[in-house]
Every structure is written in C-alpha cells, then in structure tokens.
Amino acid sequence: MPISHRVYAGIVGQSVWRSDDQGETFQRASKGMFPESDVRALAFHPAVPRILFAGTDSGVYRSDDGADSWEHLPSPMDARQIWSLAFHPSQPEVLFAGTCPADLFRSLDGGRTWKLLEAGMPRKCLVDAPIIPRVTCIHFDPNVRERILAGVEIAGFYRSDDGGEHWRYLSHGLGSLDIHDFAVLPHSPGTLVATTNRGLFLSADAGLHWTSLNVEHHLPWSYARPCILDAGDMTTLYIGIGNGPPGSRGALFRTRDLGQSWQRCALPNEPNSTIWNLAACPADPSLLYVSTINGEVYRSVDRGDSWTKTGHEFGEVRALAWIPFGPKTP
Prior knowledge:
four-stranded antiparallel sheet
C-alpha cells in the first residue's frame, strides 16, 4: 500500500483541488484564493510539505497548512500568468517563478518579496505562431550548486550558473524552440532531456548542444509534454505524449536507456487527450500520478507497471503533485 499522502491538482478556471483518498475524490481547496483562478503551477517546500505555493493568473499564493487556506503574496507578477514555480532544493527560502509573458522572478525570503531577473527572454514568439512565450519549467542542476535551468515555450532553453544573476540562451541543435519540460539526470553530470512539440532532445553538456532522440521512429506521436525521473531510479525516465495540444489521444512511455528503447505504460483506457502532468515524490518511489490536460487522473502503486483510473475528472488540469501527509507530516 502507498504511504499516507495527499494529491493536489491545479485547474484552469477552478483553482486548487486536493484528495486524501488516492485521487478517488477531490475537494476544492482554495480558501483565500479566487475559486475560479487559473492555476498552472504548484510547488512544495522540500522539507515541510504542508507549505506550498500556487501560481495563478493573478499572482502567487502561499499556504502554510496544506491548502486549508491561502495567502496572496503581492509581487510584480500580480497581473501575469504564472506558469512555473520551483523551490531551491537546498535553500528552501529561495524560490523561482516563471511567467507569461516570459520572465523569471526570484525570491530570497520565502515569497515575501520578488526580484525580476534579467534573463533576456523574448516578449514575442520567435517563430510564426500566435503564442506569447512563457516559462514552462524551472529546474536545478544537482551537480552544480548555483546552476538553474529554464525552458521557455516557443523561445528555447536558458541557463544561469550564478544563482540567477546572469543567463545564457542555449538552444544550438534544438529542432524546436517549443520547450515544454526537461529532466536533469543526476547520475550523468551535464545530461539533460527536453520535451518539445517535435519530439525529445538530448544534451550532454548542460544545454550547450542538443541532438534529437528521433522519437518519431519509436513513439506514436512526437508531441511531448511532461518529463520526470523515477524518484527511486534516476536512470528511468517517464514521458507524457499525445497527438497535439490539447489533443484527443495520449500515452505514457518510459525509457531506461535515454531513449534507445521505449516501453508503453499500460493505462487502463485510452486517455482522452495528451498526457500533460506527471507527479512523483522521493517519499515513495512506487507511487506515481499522471493526468491528461482534459481532466483524467491515473495512479500507479508499482512504479508504472500497472495503472488505475481514479474516480474524479476535471476540466483543464495544468499542475499535479502529491506529498506525504499524515500524523507524522512536519
């Protein structure tokens, strides 16, 4: 049986929801937040999981009680959509946020104040598409203390080696600048895998150069969204794909050899749209959740070998996470 935990979902137009019964039922958890907020990002304190942040279409919110209540934290992001949030893994008072239009912000005091970082991200699309660039993902390199990595939809990949003060645009070899997500492989320093609308790309030098993994030869579709490592085996990578945004079909795949071979995860039904979110936690590597953008949620208790569709369906799910939660939760 999985450990005692809570599942959280960020919903466009319906704020934050949570489940205490393994995703079978969800209840809205948005006291203090506009109940029809667009929530595209959730982030949990690395040591105190009851502390969480939500990125909305009206700024950033903080909860200190597991989403029983929320506090709006005034910031320069109040008039923006927040698409990504990330706690620094070893400095939990340090947070980063990514917005639409594409900008990066940093807080050094747990979200009380925020600074706009000069990353040089474009305000307009670099290709012929009616999309405003947005920061879709922020990750930290476990092998380089001050290295922060960011992916921008329609505008490529960015890296800072000094805690966010200065940034470099690094997209040489990317067959698409439409970065949706990426994973940092801790056992292989400098190795990154990025998902895009045109497949997956691999970098062996922390983003300086990229090469295609040619997933069009192995997977049914090349439109890829979430990318997450197995919390107990950092050589196993899960990828959510589909036939477009939002798509009408989706699938979940995993690879243990950096895309040389792929295994399709056996979801109990064909998903109703692209797999958009993946949730894992080191507290229990066997427990995984995935969701489609059109509201279906699936659970695995055996590290992706088998899956169950949960009982609740949403509208548009943009963020998904689970955390340990019980009498011993800090």
